[in-house]
Amino acid sequence: MIAFLRRRPGLLPLLLLAPAIAWLVAFYVYPAIQMLQASLWSGTLETGFAFSWANAATYPEALGRYSDQFLRSILYAAVSTVVCLALAFPLAYTIAYRAGRFRTLLLFIVIAPFFTSFLLRVLAWKTVLGDDGFLLGPLKSIGLLPEEFRILATPIAVIFGISYNFFPFMVLPIYVSLEKIDRRLVEAAKDLYAGPARAFQRITLPLALPGVFAGSLLVFIPAMGDFVNAELLGSVQTRLIGNVIQSRFLVNNDYPTAAALSFMLMAGILAAVFIYARVLGTDELETGIG
Amino acid sequence: MLRWLGRNALRAYTGLALVYLLLPIFIVALFSFNDPVGKTNYTWVGFTLDHWANLFAIPGLLDSVIVSIRIAFISTLIATTLGTLAALALVRYQFRGRPGTSLFIFLPLATPEIILGASLLTLFVAIGRPPFFPLNEFTILIAHITFNISYVIVTVRARLAGFDRRLEEASADLGADGWQTFWRVTFPLILPGIAAAGLLAFSLSIDDFVITNFTAGRTTTFPMFVWGSARVGVPPQVNAIGTIFFVAAVSAVAIGSFLQRRRA
Asked: Most buried by CB count within 10 Å: which residue of A203, B46, B133, B146?
């Protein structure tokens, strides 16, 4: 075997790759094809499902029926991405340039939430944002807020939860891009009589854009599929497309509709990733998250 | 003056951001010491150590933790092995189709978890009818290995990028064959990267809810237990387990970075 490989060195990388690629083909690509097929099924779990191209009508039907949830997902994901960006940039900037010997500690705190259970974190916000919780309770008792004011079960709570959960995915890529910037460029700009604001605008910001793009995708994509925040922090009025997919699949066993919705969601997201990869190159994407 | 303001505003903001990041972790730990009235554990009533003393008094909780640890352990082992081999191929060799392969490996990371879970559920439903393919620990394991492979490849690859290949050449110059060079030089050097990837895979698996929700059937992992009890009220013991997981993960990272610093 080893002697054979020595004669054909080109085979070694393929051999090393084969198990992982085979696994992903079997359990990532094939299920996706299977899901496309399921979206063209008709029937129920009890009677069994039958495949027919005529069932393509499921797509426009599902889209029409759940357009509200689709649009709400896009809206919440977009707002969460913008919120994350606004909150993350100053933090990433501080860690990259102002943290000194605390840099590692700060980076560690950024990823610390991932060491606690995701669901428990969401539930912790339910405690904090509760109608008489730590935050609103005191404000209500001193009369700053009306008694009926609430955050939980509103879109704000859901967007807040989504933003919190994916916040580190925005901070890290921006930090990586900022950290790579050659600071002498900023000094050069200042030598050329640019003020700090102008140097930031013309040097730092453009060079940080790959991180901003990577971070935005890493927040927007999972946010589009969220159903946990919407379920635990929201109400019936904040149901997202993820909630619909989850309940169609797991509660109603309505596989064709659920598969069609999943497929439309996935197709839209993959299109976005491909366009993004085209524009920036895959290496940029990977260094962004690495 | 303006600069002083700018600098201190940034500092104050950073402080607030850190509180924002850490507050939920603190709340989770704090409410493991709460003595709630009734089933819901959302308002602070009083301090008690009872729930820590009776950590597994809640039926099903211990079982769910054991199931989670078992799945995390096996999925980490398999995903880290497959992922490390693939990462070696991607970093060390130039071959046709490498950029495409990189993009392909990245795709599962760019797919929302709900879609990964839903498509695996569809697969299990489709190949098993009738009767349907049983959803159990085995199907969860398949799902976890799937998402972990990509994470491992990306992590190990990032760590391998700075690898000095002259060390291997030196080893070959000193008469070592390829196999000896790999085990004596390459492997010890990439081991920290593999360990980091393994740690990431383990923590992703033990905390996964979304994909598990689709592939679990009646099997209850720890996150599934939390989700199930969230409707009726999460017992403080669950917070205690969450706190233990947090402390364990932080310790693992701290020990890891300590060992690496000592080596360097």
From this structure: B146
- SS3 of chain B: helix, strand, coil, percent, to 5: 75, 0, 25
pTM (two decimals): 0.89
pLDDT of residue B150 exceeding 90, the answer is yes
Contact criterion met (CB < 8 Å) for B179 and A2: yes
* CATH number, domain B59-234, options 3.30.750.80, 3.40.50.2300, 3.20.20.80, 1.10.3720.10: 1.10.3720.10
- The amino acid that residue A114 corresponds to is F
Count of CB contacts below 8 A, A vs B?
252
Q: Which domains does chain A have, with CATH numbers?
A: 61-289 (1.10.3720.10)
Expressed in angstroms, the distance from the first to the final Cα of chain B is 43
Best mutation target among A5, A15, A28 (most B Cβ atoms within 10 Å) is A28
Q: Is B131 on the interface with A (CB under 8 A)?
A: no
Phi, psi of A153 (to 5 degrees): 70, 15
Ordered alpha helix ranges (H), A26-141 = 30-38, 58-65, 67-93, 103-111, 118-129, 136-141
The answer to whether residue B149 neighbours chain A at the CB level (below 8 Å) is yes
B104 interfaces chain A, CB cutoff of 8 Å: yes
| A256 touches B: beta carbon within 8 Å | no
Say yes or no to pLDDT of A182 above 60: yes
Cβ under 8 Å to A: B residues 44-73 = none
Question: pLDDT tens digit string along B116-149?
Answer: 999 999 998 888 755 556 888 999 999 999 999 9
